[in-house]
UniProtKB/TrEMBL annotation:
It comes from Pectinatus brassicae. S-adenosyl-L-methionine binds at Y37, C38, D39, G86. Its EC number is 4.3.99.3. Keywords: 4Fe-4S, Iron, Iron-sulfur, Lyase, Magnesium, Metal-binding, Queuosine biosynthesis, S-adenosyl-L-methionine. This is 7-carboxy-7-deazaguanine synthase. Catalyzes the complex heterocyclic radical-mediated conversion of 6-carboxy-5,6,7,8-tetrahydropterin (CPH4) to 7-carboxy-7-deazaguanine (CDG), a step common to the biosynthetic pathways of all 7-deazapurine-containing compounds. Transmembrane segments: none annotated. The gene is queE. The keyword DNA-binding does not apply. Coiled coil: none annotated. Its cofactor is S-adenosyl-L-methionine; [4Fe-4S] cluster; Mg(2+).
């Protein structure tokens, strides 16, 4: 079973509900979206897989090539394996095969758009971190895909939380649409407001915007936290 992977590394989860836990990150190559602010856009087409100090493999890598490295890393107690990218749900067969070869819980970091692919792997996924994408950052509206994605995760009673990356440029009308979407699904879902790390012409939200938008969100969603990308602050990948 093969898949294109740009890097595998052990680090501290820097975002969202599980910030601070130790995770083994598997970053898949390729994405079905093109977020203007993507901080991994340089790895979306990587032809090599970086196993930190152990090896540089050529993509697509065979699962059996990387299992020894994964198992070596997991000799240190890890909370979970973070499947990220790129968009990990483009590689469902590989994810299901990986699940056969590890007892470590699988954590899905996803753009929340590929609901048919989620259905193929969801029984092997323990935790879902799902982005709701703001249309100005991706040039399209994905509300229906996000709605179906959330509905499937709720139906399967998965541990799921939602992240919205907010920039100075994010439109309040889009933010309100995201809040309405979430409120109609579950007003108790955990919503993370993730301030944009400036890149690609996008700016961090102003301090006032962060507080005002959290207050706005708290009028519709009961659990709203503001958490920046903390791994950058501690020099972690
Ligand atoms: C690189 S993406 C990969 C997983 C999946 N494709 C997604 O977008 O959720 C992982 C997380 O990083 C966030 N992210 C990417 N670039 C960012 C930036 N410049 N500032 C803040 N968060 C960013 C995404 O919004 C997403 O929550
Ligand atoms: N430390 C660390 N935490 C993360 N949380 C989500 C990440 C991602 O790129 O998916 C990420 C990442 O790239 N590094
Ligand atoms: S969906 Fe995720 S990986 Fe794809 S472009 Fe957006 S932030 Fe980057
Ligand atoms: Mg990252």
């Amino acid at each position: 079973m093969r898949a294109p992977i740009s890097e595998i590394f052990s680090s501290v989860q820097g975002e969202g509900k599980y910030v601070g836990v130790r995770q083994l990150f598997i970053r898949f190559v390729g994405c079905n979206l093109n977020c203007g602010y993507c901080d991994t856009e340089d790895m979306l087409a990587a032809d090599k897989c970086d196993l930190e100090n152990d090896a540089i493999l050529t993509n697509p890598v065979e699962l059996t090539e990387i299992l020894p490295y994964i198992n070596k890393c997991l000799q240190i107690k890890h909370h979970s394996i973070s499947l990220t990218g790129g968009e990990p749900l483009l590689h469902t067969d590989f994810i299901n095969e990986l699940a056969v070869h590890t007892d470590c819980p699988l954590f899905l970091e996803t753009n929340g758009t590929l609901v048919e692919n989620l259905a193929k792997v969801i029984d092997n996924i323990s935790i879902i971190s799902m982005d709701i994408k703001m249309p100005d950052a991706i040039g399209q509206e994905l509300w229906q895909q996000h709605r179906e994605f959330l509905q499937l995760a709720k139906q399967k009673e998965k541990d799921i939380y939602v992240k919205i990356v907010i920039a100075r440029e994010t439109l309040v009308a889009d933010f309100n649409k995201a809040l309405d979407l979430l409120q109609n699904i579950d007003d108790n879902i955990l919503l993370i407001l993730q301030p944009m790390t400036p890149t690609g012409g996008y700016n961090a939200p102003s301090p006032e915007q962060v507080l005002l938008w959290q207050e706005k969100a708290l009028k519709k969603i009961n659990n709203v936290r503001v958490i920046a990308q903390t791994h950058r602050l501690i020099g972690q990948r």
